[in-house]
TrEMBL record, chains A, B:
This is Tyrosine/DOPA decarboxylase. One of its GO terms (cellular component) is cytoplasm. GO terms for biological process: amino acid metabolic process; carboxylic acid metabolic process. InterPro entries: Aromatic_deC, PyrdxlP-dep_de-COase, PyrdxlP-dep_Trfase, PyrdxlP-dep_Trfase_major, PyrdxlP-dep_Trfase_small. The modification N6-(pyridoxal phosphate)lysine is found at K314. It comes from Theobroma cacao (Cacao). The keyword Nucleotidyltransferase does not apply. GO terms for molecular function: carboxy-lyase activity; pyridoxal phosphate binding. Belongs to the group II decarboxylase family. Pfam families: Pyridoxal_deC. It comes from the Eukaryota.
Length: 495, 495
């Protein structure tokens, strides 16, 4: 910053980005973080604090004068860390893991370093161009058809979350439809997904102004492992058409949140293609596995789909936020999302020789998001990234084996990837409420120890324990220890 | 990760987050970044590459085997940096600056380090609670009424961008209205803003399903410095009511993108309050200045507003993305955005004793975003943050003085903050087209030197050069050098 007028207090010479000060303090922070990773196993994985714990410790106002980094780091240790649920702990088996890596951390540091705002090409050519290249790289790793690539006729973008990926494609589909039907028919647009679809789908539909009464949640059942039936979809679509409504958008899952159920793309695409429905595949978690040939079949039929999203922050070591979205017809997205204010106009954008990613997303500003993926792919190579997926699946299989070999437990739905859905088996002599209560108690006890964090779900009326393997630091020994803890809980409960 | 089955190749022992490897490589990256900041002035501020430059340099596929960090860093230097428009260069005077600081960098490192996914309280109590506290701190710094604070009856959240802040509040307003009017009246909802409002407003309205024909862009003129007239607003609203439409949402600007025009909140709130219109204040850039008492009057009337957003990534040293949104009635936002899937349910959320930020935003996942602001406020103290604003404004005043003292130039709109809007003065004897052409040529030449980057706008038909002071590394000497360069260009043009 520059000098100050003499009438303002200037207690110290303030330089917010002195390179030598930056160097010194950033080195300090690196050591703090490396130490945290080294000690991470010693912290309770699920935070044990009570609501409001932090407000009692912190002042009501920001300080008027500066405080030294040492004081702040002490507070991180004593005030923040106790309130963390440690997602990177090797004992974290809740939700889906959020995977990370040194390479991605370095990529994020670089992204922060440049702090470029890549709303259009000119504002940071490298940011736009590297993202285009990296999205093509990942598309190639997934063996997507060229129609999803910039090398072909499509393209991809890094969104923050699946919610945005769905919102953006839904709006493209909506406005394409309304161009023909007229705006007043908005209330007649209908969207479809299975009842296993992430809640974010219905939320995106609400955001986009789809009538809440036109959001179809098609039931699934245990006997088909909770996958969406093309027959049921067809019935729903035909009923809507008969009622004078307009089928608009179908969200298909490759790996649902509750149980990693996989919808079969081909038969669902038959229905969607026939009725001109925009078909989106949400492969947030399991899509990453499809970089391994042995899992790629889950994407069979992808060439008949309009858009696909998957989140490397879940399983490709990238840290948050990173959701990759590919579309076959970027022009439909751009048509509805583009803006052209005078203050952003420039020769390159006008010539239409470049991609302006602001027209592919909700916001205007955007960070240099591709650096993380670029560093991951280059630092580890495809071989190690595939192996990391395989190792997680192998550990999940190992856990599945433990469960199967204990007669008190059962696997509820077949394991496909790194998630094991299991429970204490129901006893014929007692009701299902009691079984659910026992499983709830078991989960509560396991989590209360701070030694393992798992979560639950309910599907088809069954209360299920979810054991999601794949936190980056998890090794075989953590899975073994977790199983021993679960058994210990069961021993006490079923005594 | 765990072990691998023996049938897969494992060319090296792969550990994506070995703490000692992390420590070593992150230290290397810190030095790379500190060196970049030290050398930043030597790079052309506006990248001089041509579209497609990177694809010719990079392979078509990700590598199968790992590459060493040294190779990658060499490529960052030789392939990425030439394609960067250096937003942190002290010679960056384009758009608005995107300000940064060592403290925020450290906060971002910590946020990345934890990689917690704070969709609800339990998933990371510290993440939610620190955000609540920090948002109250900033609200206090801005002297917002308690009704915007968690300490009072409101609250705030960090969104990624202004677009999301507008979208979220617009949806809350929309669904509140439709609850009464019924969904079929969506097409009758009308939104209002001045023609100076950022293009993201119209985009958010389109996303939310507001009929494009119901987005009112109310004209402004130079004689009122492009601020929105309450009289014109009232006329537009009354016309719509008379036509059987429903006025829904008004977006008011404190500091427009083109010229930092300020709409006067009080008189506009009269109209909005009278007609039950949701009133949002977009203070993306200039809002930050209101932490200084001498600028606070721009928020006068804020107690009559429903929501306010401002972006610390613009002027509070925070790096991207960071847009703070406060609302007086969080329950309206939560009502429309909340989801409650089984797999996220937990005792604390059910008891409604906690805030679950997923219900305040578009996405589900979210990072530990408040760490950056917390580190900024604590490391620098309010005094230094105020001084940093003042120093930028003083430098802009200095530049304004240079312009005013040169008879070939003129200030087009009064300077309020750190942006100077100026141009080569029109000559009575020649047409306005020629003036515009001269100014375009001047801008083009200045930017082509790589020594300064400025941008332009057109308001009220006038082509204006924008000189935005405030890049974190900018000092008086850079402003002086930029002015000398501009004069040099003018000398050549007007010879």
């Amino acid at each position: 910053m520059g000098r100050l007028d003499s009438n303002f207090p200037d207690p110290c010479h303030f330089n917010p980005l002195d390179p030598e000060e930056f160097r010194k303090q950033a080195h300090e922070m690196v050591d703090f973080i490396a130490d945290y990773y080294q000690k991470i196993e010693t912290y309770p994985v699920l935070s044990q604090v009570k609501p409001g714990y932090l407000r009692t410790d912190l002042p009501e106002n920001a300080p008027y004068l500066p405080e030294p980094l040492e004081t702040i780091l002490k507070d991180v240790q004593n005030q923040i860390i106790p309130g963390m649920t440690h997602w990177l702990s090797p004992n974290f088996f809740a939700f889906f893991p959020s995977t990370v890596s040194t390479a991605a951390f370095l990529g994020e540091m670089l992204c922060t370093c440049f702090n470029s705002v890549g709303f259009n090409w000119l504002a940071s050519p490298a940011s736009t161009e590297l993202e285009m290249i990296v999205m093509d790289w990942l598309a190639n790793m997934l063996k997507l058809p060229k129609s999803f690539m910039f090398q072909g006729t499509g393209g991809g973008i890094i969104q923050n979350t699946t919610s945005e990926a769905i919102l953006v494609t839904l709006i493209a589909a909506r406005d394409q439809a309304l161009d023909v039907l007229g705006f007043d028919n908005m209330r007649k647009l209908v969207v479809y997904a299975s009842d296993q679809t992430h809640s974010t789908f219905a939320k995106a539909c609400k955001l986009a102004g789809i009538s809440p009464r036109n959001i179809r949640s098609i039931p699934t059942t245990l006997d088909t492992a909770f996958s969406l039936s093309a027959l049921h979809l067809r019935k729903a679509v035909e009923d809507d058409v008969a009622a004078g409504l307009f089928p608009l958008y179908l969200c298909v899952n490759v790996g649902t949140t509750s149980t990693t159920a996989v919808d079969s793309i081909g038969p669902l695409a038959d229905v969607a293609n026939e009725h001109g429905i925009w078909l989106h595949v949400d492969a947030a978690y399991a899509g990453s596995a499809c970089i391994c040939p042995e899992f790629r079949h889950h994407l069979d039929g992808i060439e008949r789909v309009d858009s696909l999203s998957l989140s490397p922050h879940k399983w490709l070591l990238s840290f948050l936020d990173c959701c990759c979205l590919w579309v076959q017809k970027p022009s439909l997205v751009v048509k509805t999302l583009s803006t052209n204010p005078e203050y952003l106009r420039n020769e390159q954008s006008e010539s239409e020789s470049v991609v302006d990613f602001k027209d592919w997303q909700v916001g205007t500003g955007r960070r240099f998001k591709s650096l993380r993926l670029w560093l991951i792919f280059r630092s580890y190579g495809i071989v190690n990234i595939q192996n990391h997926i395989r190792s997680d699946v192998r550990m999940a299989k190992m856990f599945e084996g433990f469960v199967s070999s204990d007669p008190r437990f059962e696997i509820v739905v077949p394991r496909e990837f790194g998630l094991v859905c299991f429970r204490l088996k129901p006893d014929e002599n007692i009701g299902s409420d009691y079984t659910e209560m026992l499983n709830r108690k078991l989960l509560e006890w396991v989590n209360s120890t701070g030694r393992v964090y798992m979560t639950h779900t309910i599907v088809g009326g069954i209360y299920i324990l979810r054991f999601a393997v794949g936190a980056t630091l998890t090794e075989d020994r953590h899975v073994v220890a977790a199983w021993n803890l679960i058994k210990e809980g069961a021993d006490a409960l079923l005594f």
